[in-house]
């Protein structure tokens, strides 16, 4: 699976949009981009995933560049509860043995 | 939140003793996974199951065994606990191999 690169940390003002970038320049055509977050010591929480089209759900939007070498997770109106470590993962959908390789992620701090 | 519980949530045990961690789901999902999370390593897959009595190894399976006799329960056993197995253990479930995973709250295990 392709590797990802994310900034180590970011700050965002409460109520503003948080834009978290992810670089995955070696992504291949059948690899999906997934985003998870982990709040304090809780289990990782699924946010969103996509292949090449932009995606939106109740939590966030995922913008994938046309060449698919990078993506951005957007939290439209960040709240203090969005403070967490955000993980960008690329993964091939295989038949068995699916696992997510979580790198160090981006530590997002939402500031009042 | 997906119906996943883990027990116990915290455990302290001595080196050489057997330990069993339980993951219970109420979602009737086919796939279940055990991960460990350590500082500097992210989450690493220990074992996974793709059905009742169907299990396979992940990347860090040495010293661990699993069993799944019912859809809803996935047990992780440390046959003889070592200090290197001190970690936070997360269980995850997914509906199928092409679906996102949902994580439990975690079990913090300390081996003294």
Question: Explain this structure to me?
Answer:
The complex is a heterodimer of chains A (112) and B (112). Chain A has 112 residues and is mainly beta. In chain A, 0% of the residues lie in helices and 46% in strands. Chain A is built from no helices and nine strands. In chain A, the strands form two sheets. In chain A, strands 1-9-8-3-4 form a five-stranded mixed sheet, with no helix packed on it. Chain A has a four-stranded antiparallel sheet with strand order 2-7-6-5, with no helix packed on it. The model of chain A has no long low-confidence stretch (mean pLDDT 89). Chain B has 112 residues and is mostly beta strands. Helices cover 0% and strands 58% of the residues of chain B. In chain B, strands 2, 4, 5, 6, 9, 10 and 11 form a seven-stranded mixed sheet that branches. A four-stranded antiparallel sheet of chain B has the order 1-3-8-7, with no helix packed on it. Chain B is globular and about 35 Å long. At the A-B interface, β4 of A face β4, β5, β9 and β10 of B.
